[in-house]
Specification:
alpha/beta; Elongation Factor Tu (Ef-tu), domain 3; Rossmann fold; Ubiquitin-like (UB roll); 3 domains; six-stranded antiparallel sheet; five-stranded parallel sheet; 6 helices; globular; binds FE2/S2 (inorganic) cluster
Length: 321
């Protein structure tokens, strides 16, 4: 996978608990172009790799702005960013990858929960630049936690709707009015905690939105990973289409682990079904999808599978490797 050497050019506090960092290329050149919704893998001190959405405008490839919340239940990434990164520090990142791109539509409803604002802020920039119709709803626990507040007000004005749970406006109490009777060409984008997105999705579908117009991104696994509870898992086979080799995937192994041991080159990053690096085309068979990368529609098409965590519903899965 292509990597890029960058330097932290600036850091800023973005509301309580959020730290933004501006990354520029170490050699001073432009960074790769990206579309709103993209994320990069960041190689953190200590060997961790974490995925963070780009919050800045796609129009500016001189820098990527990321923003990371300090999580009490950090798996290491959030605390590493908050405690170990400093301005001037060199980092390695991946090229941007986009699994959450804007779709054609006559109106775009962006709904963020907490730090889920990051990809949606980039979307707001892109939609504004395109002269497209959009509105941004941003749910936080308290106003003190709002990231990019000045930018939101200054650049998007009354297209931005801030909802603070402290003021009685959490998503269970106040839903965006745009969910009512969203026309067929309207698109809905969600980023935030899994329960928050599930609630908004359910509310939207109850109001007539179909799943194909609801897009989300969750940077946390929402289902047990393949090896987390091997007790109920079935054994299945994976066939490598190019060579005809067949491998048995035992209940406590992942496809990626077995193929990796056999020397088959795979692209891996998060290894927990949230980044999309390992998406592999399916030639035959029905995957048992365990990732949060693909939409329900994409999963139902069974065209691709995340080999780091997904399994198989059919006895054999043939992969385009
Ligand atoms: S490696 Fe990230 S989804 Fe599989």
């Amino acid at each position: 996978m292509q990597t890029i050497e960058v330097v932290i050019d600036a850091m800023s506090r973005q509301g309580a608990g959020n730290l933004a960092m501006e990354l520029v290329r170490a050699d001073g050149a432009a960074l790769p172009a990206f579309e709103a919704g993209a994320h990069v893998d960041v190689h953190l001190p200590g060997g961790l790799i974490r995925q963070y959405s780009i919050a800045s405008t796609p129009a500016d490839t001189a820098r990527y702005v990321l923003c990371v919340r300090r999580e009490a239940a950090s798996r290491g990434g959030s605390s590493s960013v908050h405690e170990r990164l400093r301005v001037g520090q060199a980092l390695t990142i991946s090229a941007p990858r986009n699994l959450f791109a804007l779709q054609p539509g006559s109106h775009h409803v962006l709904v963020a929960g907490g730090i889920g604002i990051t990809p949606l802020l980039a979307m707001a920039h892109q939609l504004q630049a395109q002269g497209a119709s959009f509105e941004l709803h941003y749910y936080v626990r308290s106003r003190s936690e709002i990231a990019f507040l000045r930018q939101l007000h200054g650049e998007f004005g009354d297209r931005v709707h801030l909802h603070s749970a402290e003021e009685g406006r959490d998503a269970r109490q106040v839903l965006p009015e745009a969910l009512e009777g969203g026309a067929d060409e309207h698109q809905l984008y969600l980023c935030g905690p899994a329960a928050f997105m599930a609630h908004i999705t359910e509310a939207a579908m109850a109001r007539g939105w179909d799943a194909a117009r609801i897009h989300d991104e969750a940077f946390a696994p929402v289902k047990p990973l393949a090896s987390a509870d091997a007790g109920d898992e079935a054994t299945f086979e994976v066939e490598v289409a190019s060579t005809g080799q067949v491998f048995t995937i035992a209940p406590d192994r992942t496809i990626a682990a077995v193929l990796g041991e056999a020397g088959i080159a795979l692209s891996l990053s998060c290894e927990m079904g949230i980044c999309g690096a390992c998406l592999t085309d399916v030639v035959d068979g029905i995957p048992d999808h365990r990732d949060t990368v693909q939409s329900d529609v994409e999963k139902a098409s069974n065209k691709q599978v995340t080999v780091c965590c997904s399994r198989s519903c059919s006895p054999r899965l043939t992969l385009a490797l």
